[in-house]
Specification:
The chain has 15 helices and 16 strands. By secondary structure, the chain is of the alpha/beta class. β6, α5 and β7 form a beta-alpha-beta unit.
């Protein structure tokens, strides 16, 4: 089983690693295939795009697929099924026209006025979060063939054997991690199979384009990504993921909110934007699995603050991070932990950003924070906005309160999380560049004893 779509993408990326040498293009089937494909594209240093496809459902039973349509007028219709259930030509065309309207809407939403990524003469890796009947993937594969792809590789975490066999006629290779005889449903094989929103699809595509543009414009190599284990002062070990771009200007440690982890998709989106801007990132679990099972620990802000200090000291001991200015990005309760850690470490922390945070939970220490602090809150997150305004009045450091119009607490509305990422990128770029001498920063961390 897979934890979520990103976990599935990382597992698939390992199986597809040999294709990196072919400089492939990764093409996702939206919506659910995009988070899977984003991980593969990042791992293979490949462009990411979508093949917009719509399933054709039977007129009286829309969930029953009779075919699919794709961009460029590609159409797949299961004629034997259409005849068996008695769908006439006129009725079929009405179904096609209805779905074509939604198809065109999604093309505009995901790609705007931009052109699709050119696949001509290249290996195209077609990705979805799972394969059932295979109709939509078949239409997408034919679209890629029509656009001149030299080779099409279908990559899915889980698929029905019948669907896989169907696709072998239209692709050169199938990479499927699980092919159970009884599929039940694609979501059955995921711990978290929450729907992927249009906003998330658009954001992942924007971030992928930004990564590509950043490399092309700066000459940077692909960032190094490594799994790490962080030893804490109280004898525990925390799992994390360090991403280090070439010539990084600083390092940002992420503190997730209650009920989340280093895998937080929203934090990862922000982290991707920072990496594209030349900032190293460290996402890690603030608690062990056993600790997280006790809900009291999840809301123990002093404990979480100490863990962030532990991670900071760990980072300072890594030779590859030597000399990088440090920043904290905290979400929800993680923002309070970031502010406590910043109060403990004083000028050793160069900047703090809070997303939908609860700085009020760090109220006793807010006046001690020295790091320039940016509080980002959704305009429709009224209760949290009021708490942030009150907390801002307690801060004595340089600080700003940025309100994202139309955003609720989780920034799920189109464009709102991109706004968060851009605000964070600008704040960290501004404050991490040239933030003090390396020896001074290291000494400040070593000399501080947490007061949390």
């Amino acid at each position: 089983m897979f934890r979520d779509r990103r976990d599935a993408g990382r597992q698939l990326a390992q199986r597809l690693s040999a294709l990196r040498a072919e400089h492939p293009v990764v093409i996702a089937l939206p919506r659910g295939g995009v988070p899977v494909a984003a991980e593969i594209a990042a791992a293979l240093d490949a462009p990411l795009d979508v093949a917009v496809v719509r399933k054709l459902g039977a007129p009286q039973q829309p969930e029953f697929g009779i075919g699919a349509i794709a961009e460029d007028g590609v159409r797949v219709v299961h004629e034997d099924v259409v005849r068996a259930i008695g769908i006439g030509a006129a009725e079929l065309e009405r179904v096609v026209e209805r779905e074509r309207g939604e198809l065109e809407r999604r093309i505009r939403l995901y790609r705007g006025a931009g052109a699709p990524v050119d696949v001509a003469g290249r290996t195209a890796i077609l990705v979805d979060d799972g394969l059932a009947t295979g109709s939509t993937a078949q239409a997408a594969a034919r679209l890629l063939r029509a656009r001149g792809a030299a080779r099409v590789v279908l990559a899915v975490p889980v698929g029905a054997p019948d669907g896989i066999e169907l696709l072998r006629r239209d692709v050169d290779e199938v990479v499927c991690l699980l092919a159970p005889e009884s599929l039940v449903a694609i979501g059955y094989w995921y711990e978290d199979f929450a729907p992927t929103s249009d906003a998330e699809v658009a954001a992942l595509l924007v971030q992928a384009r930004a990564r590509g543009a950043g490399r092309a414009g700066s000459g940077r190599a692909s960032p190094e990504t490594s799994g790490v284990a962080i030893a804490t002062a109280d004898g525990h070990e925390l799992a994390g993921e360090l991403v280090l771009p070439e010539a990084a200007i600083g390092l940002v440690l992420f503190a997730h909110g209650s009920g989340s982890s280093r895998r937080s998709p929203r934090n990862r989106q922000v982290a991707d934007a920072l990496v594209a801007g030349g900032v190293a990132t460290l996402l890690f679990d603030l608690l062990t699995d056993a600790e997280a099972a006790d809900r009291a620990n999840v809301f123990d802000i002093p404990l979480l603050g100490r863990r962030l200090v532990d991670a900071t000291r760990w980072a300072r001991g890594r030779p590859e991070l030597d000399g990088l200015a440090l920043g904290y990005f905290g979400a929800s309760t993680g923002a309070a932990a970031a502010l406590l850690a910043a109060a403990d470490l004083g000028e050793a922390v160069a900047a703090v950003v809070s997303r939908g945070g609860r700085p009020d939970l760090a109220a006793p220490r807010l006046s001690e924070v020295r790091a320039p602090t940016l509080l980002i809150v959704g305009g429709e997150d009224r209760e949290v906005l009021a708490l942030n305004r009150a907390a801002a009045a307690e801060l004595r450091c340089e600080h700003e309160l940025a309100v994202v119009p139309g955003a609720t607490h989780l920034f799920e509305e189109p464009g709102t999380l991109e706004a968060v990422a851009e605000l964070a990128r600008r704040w960290f770029t501004r404050h991490l560049s040239g933030a003090g001498a390396p020896a001074e920063r290291t000494a400040r961390i070593a000399d501080r004893t947490p007061q949390t």
